[in-house]
Write a structure and sequence with these properties.
Largest sheet: 5 strands, parallel
Radius of gyration: 25 Å
Number of strands: 13
Strand order of the largest sheet: 2-3-4-1-5
Strand content: 15-25%
Number of domains: 3
CATH topology of the largest domain: Rossmann fold
CATH architecture of the largest domain: 3-Layer(aba) Sandwich
Distance between the termini: 43 Å
Oligomer: single chain
Shape: elongated
Length: 522
């Protein structure tokens, strides 16, 4: 197969992508819908999910570049293709963490406004406040050309990267609040405003000076406005899927491995998940190597800063439960840890209960599970350093070969070696975490508290050929664990899967802080 030219390396300009690359996943119907219905729109998505490309595509739409959209969904609509002047600001450009961060932010915005003004052969004031310059540019462009489109990408970057610098953060927030406040008083000159960011951090106060935008972040209609759905994957990557399926035992097996490793992001209660574009594109471009490309591109510094500030109860990460309003529950311009991890892409919506209005959060896929497990091990135990030196291959071989006794003996040794200072009281949750963390670091799939109609399974490990159902008990007979698996009929949940189901009862001792007994039933 001759490799296609895929948009690898952060291609974020729509016109370049359409002219120089071999594929584009069409999101233009969504753009038509939001631009036809709303005046101001806000979208929150994790990094490297295509927000900047979406902004560039919107810019091309409103610039009237009709020829770039031939064959795409929007070309089949009644879009008028009128040219509008665009003020496109990207706040991910620049370092605002130094002592003069507020001055740097103002200089950065002024520079971007100046470039925009020159593009439309318009002058701006040299010494006026950036809010005044912004207002003047909007008014002049609207009078000279047409109503203005404003696009602000990564609006929250200055705030997130200074989350641990309280005094500077306040100054930056006040600067941005005044700047964004201009949009409210300029409503008559504006055609459309589109704002993106990773989080809704401080959104309520930051945008209080303007008309509140339509937040489509958790709107079911736009659940796939960023990211690649399974249908889009199979329609747009036919050459790659056909070629690499040979390497992984056929198309069905290959697609399942792709889903397990890169898919699994849900941004609304609608049961439609998406792949992270960065990971899947790099996978295809690298001869189908299953590598955590998104994770290797770097953990956002604001996540590390916030975890360091607030701490984290690692036992509560999996299956965290939140009401819808908690995704925007900000007080004093701070955000609680689970919404932050969700909006940063480390947790995703795994379930929604219509009766209670609660969302359940969990890791989206193997890539994120493995990366975050390594982070937790590095920061909350000695696990990662021990694992790196030892017998990780033996762990994987044992579980893949169905050798439960070998796996459990290795796990027992591992837990004896590692000190998890996570909880003052040994509970079944403690054991679940310790087991799942080692499995996740090995790159296998381990789900805690897997819910069925009859209850929740403590831990479920998935391999290519087997599904292991684990039930943990603390200081109780091992028969109790196996009896619960049978009584609750947990295996029925996976009856149609086709893989062999192995039931494992495990007993943990509080006194010894380790596994003391296990028993299997296949």
């Amino acid at each position: 197969m001759k490799k296609r030219k895929l948009p690898i390396g952060g291609i974020q300009t729509f016109s370049i992508l359409r002219k120089e690359y071999d594929m584009y996943v069409d999101k233009t119907q969504h753009i038509y819908n939001i631009a036809s219905r709303y005046k101001t729109v806000f979208l929150s998505r994790p990094r490297r999910f295509g927000k900047s490309l979406l902004c560039s595509t919107i810019k091309s739409v409103f610039s009237g570049e009709k020829e770039l959209f031939n064959g795409l969904a929007i070309s089949k609509t009644d879009w008028a293709w009128k040219e509008h002047p665009i003020i496109h600001l990207d706040l991910s450009l620049g370092d605002f963490t130094k002592e003069n961060g507020n001055e740097a932010l103002q200089a950065n915005i002024r520079s971007q406004l100046s470039i925009c003004a020159k593009e439309y052969e318009t002058d701006i004031s040299d010494n006026a406040d950036i809010s005044i310059v912004f207002r003047e540019l909007i008014v002049e462009l609207s009078q000279k050309i047409n109503s203005v489109v404003v696009i602000i990408d990564e609006y929250d970057n200055p705030l997130l990267n200074t989350v641990n610098q309280t005094e500077l953060n306040v100054k930056l927030r006040e600067t941005l609040k005044g700047f964004y406040g201009i949009l409210k008083g300029s409503d008559q000159y504006l055609r459309f405003t589109f704002i993106t960011g990773i989080t809704k951090f401080a959104q309520i106060t930051l945008f209080s000076g303007m008309n509140q935008p339509k937040d489509i972040s958790m709107d079911t209609e736009y659940c796939d406005i960023c990211g690649i759905t399974q249908r889009e994957l199979e329609e747009n990557f036919v050459p790659e899927i056909n070629e690499y399926s040979k390497k992984y035992g056929g198309k069905e097996n290959y697609l399942r491995e792709l889903r397990d490793f890169y898919n699994g992001y849900f941004f609304t209660e609608k049961k439609l998940s998406v792949y992270n574009p960065y990971g899947i594109l790099n996978h295809f471009d690298s001869d189908a190597k299953f590598t955590p490309y998104w994770s290797l591109s770097g953990t956002p510094s604001f996540v590390l800063k916030y975890l360091e500030m607030k701490g984290i109860n690692v036992l509560e990460i999996e299956n965290a439960r939140m009401e819808a309003n908690m995704f925007a529950d900000y007080k004093d311009n701070t955000i609680s840890i689970f919404p932050l991890l969700y909006q940063a892409g480390y947790l995703t919506i795994s379930d929604y209960d219509e009766r209670t209005g609660f969302y359940r959060l969990n890791y989206p896929n193997i890539e994120v599970r493995k990366t975050f497990a390594e982070f937790l091990a590095n920061n909350y135990s000695q696990a990662q350093s021990i694992l790196a030196k030892s017998i990780s291959i033996e762990f994987v071989d044992a579980i893949l070969d169905g050798n439960v006794d070998e796996f459990m003996n290795l796990l027992k040794w591992y837990l004896h070696t590692v000190d998890y200072s996570l909880s003052s009281k040994i509970t079944e949750s403690y054991v679940e975490f310790a087991v799942s963390n080692i499995i996740n670091m090995l790159g296998l799939v381990c789900v805690n508290e897997a819910h069925t109609a009859n209850g929740s399974m403590d831990s479920v490990i998935f391999t290519k050929d087997r599904i292991y159902i684990f039930e943990f008990k603390v200081d109780k007979p091992v028969e109790n664990a196996l009896r619960q698996i049978k009584k609750k009929d947990y295996a029925l949940f996976y009856a149609k899967d086709g893989r062999k189901i192995v039931k494992v009862g495990v007993v943990f001792s509080r006194e010894l802080r380790n596994i003391v007994e296990w028993k299997t039933d296949e």
